[in-house]
Amino acid sequence: MVHHPNRTQARQALTLIETVASISIIGILAAILIPAVQAVRESARKAHCQDNLKQIALATHAFHNANNALPSFYNGTSLPFPLQEWDLFHTHSWRATLLPHLEQTALRESIAWDSLATSLENEPVATTVVPPYVCPSGTSPTTNMGWVIRYGSMSVPEPNRTEADICQVVRSDYDAMAGILVIPDTSPSGVNPYSTKFVRWGVWGWPDFDNNAISGGKLLRYRPGKFRDISDGLSNTIMLVERGGRPIHLVDGRPKATPDNPDAVYLGQTGWSASNTFVWAINGHNVGINQDNATGIYSSHAGGAYIALADGSVSFLTESTDFHTLARMFGRSDGDR
Prior knowledge:
The chain is of the alpha+beta class and 337 residues long.
């Protein structure tokens, strides 16, 4: 008697093979398509980031047109010079003065300019998100927040600080860089690495310190910059940069192995509304792009970061940009065109 194969079993076996093949095909397609979709999304975020920086650059130009000078790093109703270094963390930042030019007039008018930027009175301002100041490739501005130390609270030991001493604030992912440190290899040992003689000053003005150093002394005078002072050409000089990842201190894409003291005096102010000292507004010596977000240009984008030039244009600088090329782009009048 001839036995025929069970047609149902054969069909089931065939269906199993088809299922495995389908799963394999789906897996292959997913492996191809998911990175492609992610790349498209990141491309859109980069375009948004570029547009943010363009908006800030245009707002800076609008401010300059109205005031014949760039915004001051330090703002308030009354600033009694000389200013102690610690005082500089608590004045209103250059970003606060740009608000009307970023369609944020109501927020600008809500600022109590006669009070410190880090005061309780100005906390509602400091905790407000200003969309052009946040890079979409970074983390949520209300999740990964910056913070400020209240004026006079530095003397309070960290474990004993209360909400009256510390406030979480909305960060900014973009910054104004006042210059860059370039220390010659021939400098003698023991020289102050923060000496003003090593700074190539940029577009943001002229500070004068009592100790001739960007750290540890008093700011005697400060004159905001003017575009006419840029002899190297507006299209050759850096005005604004990405400064992402803060308040976490990132080095080469990773949190620093030994975290710094979280006080602003060690890592700089990370909120958008309060000012910084000059030491945190100067690109560090030999610090390239995406190497250290505490002392240099840093982004959440692979391969480089956006910068805005003084003519208002925005460019993407790659991580391979030579430090000396970067230094020439920062200087406003060092003869490099």
